Amino acid sequence: MERLDSRIKSHDKDIERMCNYHYQGFIDSIRELLQVRSQAKSLNSEVVQLDEELQASAASVIVKGEELVQARRVESNIAAAIENLSLCLPVLTTYAKLQKQMKEKRYYPALKTLEQLEHLYLPRVANYRFSHQMKENIPKLRENIKEASMSDLKDFLENIRKFSPKIGEVAMRHTAEHLRSDLGVVGKKKRQAPAPPNPFTGEIDYEPPAESTYDAEEDLSAQDLIDFSPVYRCLHIYSVLGSRETFETYYRKQRKKQARLVLQPPTNMHETIAGYRAYIHGIVGFFVVEDHVLNTGNGLVNRTYLDEVWNMALSKIVNALRTHSAYCTDATLMLKIKNLIMLFNTTLRNYGYSVNQLFDLLHEIREHYNEVLMQRWVQVFREILDEESYLPIQVSSQAEYDNVLETFPFHDQALEQLSFPKRFPFSPLVPKIYQQVKEFIYACLKFSEDLNLSQGEVDDMIRKSTNLLLSRSFSGCLSSLFRKPSLALLQVIQIIIDTGYLEEATVYLEEFVSNITGAPKEGHMSGRSQGQSCMFRVARDDAERQICDKLKRKLDEFLELENYDWLLVEPRGHASSFITDLIAFLQSIFLSFTNLPPEVAQEACKSACEHIAKSVLNFMLSDDVKQISMGALQQINLDTIQCEPSEPVPGLQEGVLLQYFADLRQLLDLFMTWDWPTYFHDYGQDNSKYQQVYPNTAIILLDKLREADKKTVFSVLKKSERDKKKLLETVLKQLRQLAQTAQQ
């Protein structure tokens, strides 16, 4: 404890000593501290003041800082928005472009834009909802583009159907101009003179339709007249969409339907050339369009398909043209149809189509054309025949004589040496018909131009048609003329003479045909004598019958004047007056037969003799004549002798005409000679003198003789008359027995 206390005291002393040592410093520190306190207070007030001032100034900085932070955040958002919008804007721009293209009907670019949108831009904005909506709409948009492009295609098909005739007209006009220019190059100038007019109306062969809307200044082709872009567009669109085959099938199907519509001819097409033009222009337009699509459509139409359509169309075209041309009866219209078909052939052949069937059709139409020509010339022939007087041509001057020779090739040395006035053996009918036949030949040749026929074929066709014209048409007109009761006998004779000269002139017609066709003359003349000599055989046969009929009717006029006294006691000693007039008439008629063909004159003469013989025989056997005296029979015998000619016309064999009087002559000889024993003895034998006297005929005549004898009151008093009467009864009895035997 002491130690502790000493220790404490030691430490206290140390503390005190230390305190003493540091006391002054402590006092100084206190003093300094006191000073510091005041300074601290001053500093504190300054700090407070500064703090207040700092607080005041920091408040605006804080506000600005917050504004700056906000601005930085906005800026960041803007940058993000810009970045995102830069990704979306191409999508939206492309979509807007798509909508615009569809609105403008630019479907193929729209389809390309749609593909770009789908594969390039939409994947970049796949996180946005609108991109999903767009993705869902893309198939619908594609379908809309398909439908819209198909709608445009349908509009195109409708327009092309309307414009096809126009396209065809332009194409055919180009072909016609090209042909004319080719012909012009061959000639002296490119612009050649117009084609010669046809022989009917004077019109130029091929003229564009008056109603044509074609303007020479609008020299447009098919692609200029029609916008084909809808087809190409639709083809590209369907190709891109993988539906090319569907589109090809649809297009071809629709065009085939349109082809069938185009190939249906108007019902009244055959009436005017305008109907044929409209029909053919439509067909040409259709196939020109298809040819253009073939060349520019990237395989949409191929040659196989086009050939199939053309072959289907060709048969219908041929049938339609064949049917409607068959209704045509106007040769001028048929020429126009031929020229139209020729231009149609050339136009389509230039486009690569086969037109051989159409050339075959033209050959058929040519035959119908020749028939129509014949019908036309039938009217011409009838007019000539109706106006003709059938009197030989008589000329009074050399000019008139030369004029006749210019129109008909006739040479007669004897006629040339005669002085004027001169008379030709033929009537004006001959040169008129000859000139009309030449006109017919020109008309036939007109149709054969440009048909690719050889000279020989043209020559044969014209010869055949000319032969038919004369042998059928003209002969038919003559046959109709002969049936007219107003035609006199001398006129019929003159017509037969005229036909003879026309037959002789056929050699000149053949030379004329050879000259205009350029075919060799050899090989045709050999058949002329066989064919041409019987050219008017039918007409001549009709004329012969008419001559015979008219001659018989004329003879009947004389025979009706018969005035026999059937109870005549003695004959007059000369021929009856009506027989004398009849013979005089026959002599004048036979004189007019001079220029007739011998066989015609001979036939007419035979017919006249036969008719006279039968008529005289019928006079005696008529039921109206009840009794006949021997004097009357002797007078009839005298008249018959006068009628039995020797050779009224040249060329008849001796005794030929007497055969027609055989029945009458044998009957009269039997009664004149009363040679009944010979008759009964030789009856039935081939060498019988009275072979043509039949028992019934003799019975009728004997009955009439017996009736006449009854009128003689005193005849029964004479023994000779009684014997004659008994003989007559005996003869009658035997004749009746012969008649009964012949019937059995």
From TrEMBL:
Query: Among its keywords, does the record have Transport?
Result: yes
Exocyst complex component EXOC6/Sec15 N-terminal domain: residues covered: 3-172
The segment(s) forming the Exocyst complex subunit EXOC6/Sec15 C-terminal domain are 357-704
GO biological process assignments: Golgi to plasma membrane transport; intracellular protein transport; vesicle tethering involved in exocytosis
| Domain of life (superkingdom) | Eukaryota
Q: Name one Pfam family in it.
A: Sec15_C
Per UniProt, which keywords does this protein have? Coiled coil, Exocytosis, Transport
List every stretch annotated Disordered: 187-207
Any one annotated GO CC term: membrane
According to the UniProt entry, where is the signal peptide? none
Q: What protein family does this chain belong to?
A: Belongs to the SEC15 family.
Free-text function comment from the UniProt entry: Component of the exocyst complex involved in the docking of exocytic vesicles with fusion sites on the plasma membrane.
The protein's name in its UniProt record: Exocyst complex component
**Source organism (scientific name):** Timema tahoe
Recall the taxonomic lineage recorded for the source organism. Answer: Eukaryota, Metazoa, Ecdysozoa, Arthropoda, Hexapoda
